[in-house]
Amino acid sequence: MTLLYVLSDTLLYGCLAWLIGHFAVQLIPLPYRPDVSFSVRQLRLFILLIPVLFSSSVIRIVRYLYEDIGFWMTLRSVLLTFEVGNAWIVMSILSVLLFAVTFSKRQQRIPLSLSLLFFMVVTLAWADHASSIKGAEGVVVHTIHALSVFIWVGGLFVLGFSSKTEHNWQLFIEWFKPLVTLCFVLIVGSGIYLMSAVIRIDDYPASWILPYGQSLLWKHVLIFPVLILGFLNGKASYAQTNQDFNVKRARIRIEGILLLFIFAAIAWLGQQEPPHSINDTLQTSGSGKLSELIFPNLQHAYSDITFEPTVASTTLFVISLLFTGLLIFVIKKTNDSMKILYLGIGLSVSLFCTLLYSLTVFL
Description:
Blueprint: H1 2-26, H2 40-69, H3 71-81, H4 83-101, H5 109-126, H6 129-134, H7 136-162, H8 169-198, H9 211-221, H10 223-236, H11 245-269, H12 278-285, H13 289-294, E1 304-307, H14 311-333, H15 337-356, E2 359-362
Antiparallel strand pairs: 1-2
Helix pairs in contact: 1-2, 1-5, 1-7, 1-11, 2-3, 2-4, 3-4, 4-5, 5-7, 7-8, 7-11, 9-11, 10-11, 10-14, 10-15, 11-15, 14-15
């Protein structure tokens, strides 16, 4: 079931990003708007999927509790008394309203749709760990974090998968690049705050022995190939007028797909127990299967964890450098987009293993 929850959350984030990207592009005046098309039927399908996909958070809690008081009583209790249940009700109402707006032909439907999507993102933040720990402050910061991600990914999705011609492509890229830079700065700042709400920054390397820390690490290492691809794409691919349009579009699609992997890492992170105390979490829940493989002697306690290079981590780091060099070469010298995806994943995996094998656990 965990994989099903992860898939649901990943698709939920993807739907929200695509919808935000779609309606945001509609705000651009027609003479400056890129040539993108997205059928109303697909648009409405994505909107209807949001409450369905978001319901996985409710189902997970209900399945955990229902044996004591029965399924329907548990469902009613979760919907009415749990924050995630209240959030699902609000998300469903907002989805119905957004679905109704798609039948309107008035120009005001675009800002109204974006307003409804904004409140959906706020609702998503409300149901997250940070709101239960930091209250309203956590909701605000998580909303900024999620909106920045959705704007970035949504723009890539729309441009990569919905654009039909190169019309106004260059105009869009010229303002989209600085917007992405702003989004990335906001993502980093708000991300540090959200991470510190769960674990101390100094404990971040030590948290890698737990499934939560490993999920967080996956999320962070996956950003490296995205940054390389985004920077070099902007310099050497989709911003160039002499580059073939299909190559440009394919590069943006790959960048969007890599960001979708980050959505999957975030979804996986949401299924893990937050380690407010690493030692306590280790004693109650164990270290997880991956840690048992890498640290076979680790059981339910440790005296210290240090971060220092080992033969294995150094070898893996050299491999990650090779992946980086190959990724840069393929982006700059070839038109093969699928190799970029494979090399980006290879870079992320090698970096992940490099950092894990750099830990030394003292029992």
